[in-house]
């Protein structure tokens, strides 16, 4: 590998292949339908609230607090269920948004629904207490003990408070991924505990056939998606394909690859660049799943995952024994051929973030000169012999960027000099004509995104997977 990009072979470059973006257009339609459905649902429950005198009730102090409290409760309930759908691994949403984008949307909707839920609690108590602070303790006790489902709802609120607090960045930095993931599952319990309260005391849920159908449909869709896509399908696939550890290969002092074999893997709908959430059935820690990227293109006979020892889950990989059974979820991720709309591509990874891009470099269809792989690293480069072979056999152009960070905010390293944008454009003059696939630490991928946007790459042709959670 060299730090300078060789001139591309003198071969004609293909024009845009319209077949490449057929799936991209379908995913765009899913995103549009989701956005319309989200806003339509909020408008619909607002309309029903107004039909019940919601606006009229705003004229009085006591009735006004209660009325606004009802509205914030409706919005919160709607968005809580949307959250569940977002993280249920529903294939149309996974394919259309990808894990990183879904997580960002989930985070925004999550904090908004939580704020609305707290507002609902405060406003309802204030309304029932007629706006008198001295009556708040007694009113709160009365609501908890004499209104159906409110006590269960309070328990659900506690669960959601725990989830929200541990989702704040400062708290996440102090938690292991495995601990954070386990705590985050309490969100399902919190949402589930709210249902009895909504059914027993929420007139907006049961006062008409249309409302009952809407809410039960939304609840059924959320619960069904979790049961099918988060529990049923992973269990079925794990039993069907019987993944086992074939061998463990140390790639560097802190990076290992695990080769997996199984039955009928040619029928597993997996693409190069995607990742699996894996549980190795060996104690301790077998109950905790960790996401690992595929570092080689699937060949129908085996799979390879590669990870750096950053946490407890990835550190255990080096000690796995051949024959260890594997439970898995997935495949997931849009860092694959699904998002490709151009013949030319740039694959850019930092450190162990090269793993899914190594798989893409092998699995994508391209002619010599159409694929450039940019690898940023500070120690020894991963997969150097394999990338060299791909360069020789497939015409992959490898741009190695070794060395320490040149300056705060630098993403390309000392090879690029001070003007990183100019350096990137000189290395890849046709950058604006390419799809860009990025993987690495969040700060690094965000920095590269800024560079390629400044170079003229449209935002919808930048496909990112970061290590953040």
Count the domains. Answer: 3
Rounded to the nearest angstrom, the distance between the terminal CA atoms is 32 Å
Strand arrangement, major sheet: 9-8-7-10-11
Shape, per Cα inertia axes? elongated
What's the order of the H and E elements? HHHHHHHHHHHEEEEEHEEHEHEHEHE
Cα radius of gyration in angstroms: 26 Å
Query: How many beta-strand elements?
Result: 11
Largest beta-sheet details: 5 strands, parallel
Strand content: 5-15%
The residue ranges in which pLDDT falls below 50 over 5 or more consecutive positions are: 1-16
Query: What percent of residues adopt helix (DSSP H or I)?
Result: 40-55%
Mean pLDDT: 84
Structural class based on helices, strands and sheet pairing: alpha/beta
Q: DSSP helix count?
A: 16
Q: What labels describe this entry?
A:
469 residues, alpha/beta, Elongation Factor Tu (Ef-tu), domain 3, Rossmann fold, 3 domains, five-stranded parallel sheet, three-stranded antiparallel sheet, 50% helix, elongated, disordered N terminus, transmembrane helix, flavin adenine dinucleotide binding, iron-sulfur, oxidoreductase activity
């Amino acid at each position: 590998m060299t730090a300078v990009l060789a001139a591309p072979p003198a071969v004609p470059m293909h024009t845009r292949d319209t077949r490449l973006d057929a799936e991209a257009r379908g995913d765009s339609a899913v995103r549009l339908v989701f956005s319309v459905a989200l806003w339509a649902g909020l408008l619909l429950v607002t309309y029903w609230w107004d039909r019940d005198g919601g606006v009229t009730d705003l004229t009085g102090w006591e009735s006004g607090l209660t009325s606004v409290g009802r509205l914030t409760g409706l919005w919160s309930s709607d968005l809580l269920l949307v959250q569940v759908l977002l993280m249920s691994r529903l294939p149309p949403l996974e394919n259309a948004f990808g894990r990183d984008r879904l997580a960002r949307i989930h985070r925004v909707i999550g904090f908004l629904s939580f704020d609305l839920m707290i507002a609902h609690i405060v406003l309802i108590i204030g309304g029932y207490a007629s706006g008198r602070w001295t009556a708040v303790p007694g009113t709160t006790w009365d609501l908890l003990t004499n209104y159906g489902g409110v006590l269960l709802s309070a328990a659900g609120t506690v669960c959601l408070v725990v989830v929200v607090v541990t989702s704040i960045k400062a708290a996440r930095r102090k938690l292991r991924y495995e601990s954070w993931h386990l705590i985050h599952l309490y969100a399902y319990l919190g949402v589930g505990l709210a249902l009895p309260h909504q059914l027993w005391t929420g007139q907006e849920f049961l006062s008409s056939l249309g409302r009952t159908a809407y809410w039960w449909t939304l609840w059924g869709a959320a619960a069904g998606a979790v049961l099918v896509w988060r529990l049923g399908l992973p269990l079925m696939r794990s039993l069907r394909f019987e993944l086992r550890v074939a061998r463990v290969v140390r790639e560097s002092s802190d990076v290992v690859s695990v080769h997996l074999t199984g039955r009928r893997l040619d029928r597993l709908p997996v693409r190069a660049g995607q990742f699996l959430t894996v549980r190795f059935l060996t104690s301790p820690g077998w109950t905790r799943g960790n996401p690992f990227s595929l570092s080689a293109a699937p060949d129908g006979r085996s799979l390879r995952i590669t990870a750096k020892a950053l946490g407890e889950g990835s550190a255990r990989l080096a000690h796995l024994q051949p024959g260890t059974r594997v439970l898995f979820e997935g495949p997931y991720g849009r860092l694959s051929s699904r998002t490709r709309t151009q013949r030319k591509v740039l694959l850019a990874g930092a450190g162990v973030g090269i793993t899914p891009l190594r798989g893409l470099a092998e699995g994508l269809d391209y002619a010599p000169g159409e694929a450039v792989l940019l690898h940023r690293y500070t120690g020894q480069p991963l997969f150097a012999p394999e990338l060299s072979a791909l360069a020789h056999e497939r015409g992959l152009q490898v741009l190695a960027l070794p060395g320490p960070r040149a300056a705060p905010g630098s993403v390309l390293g000392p090879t690029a000099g001070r003007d990183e944008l100019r350096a990137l454009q000189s290395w890849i003059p046709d950058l604006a004509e390419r799809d860009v696939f990025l993987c690495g630490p969040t700060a690094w991928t965000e920095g590269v995104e800024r560079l390629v946007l400044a170079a003229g790459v449209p935002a919808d042709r930048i496909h990112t997977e970061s290590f953040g959670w």
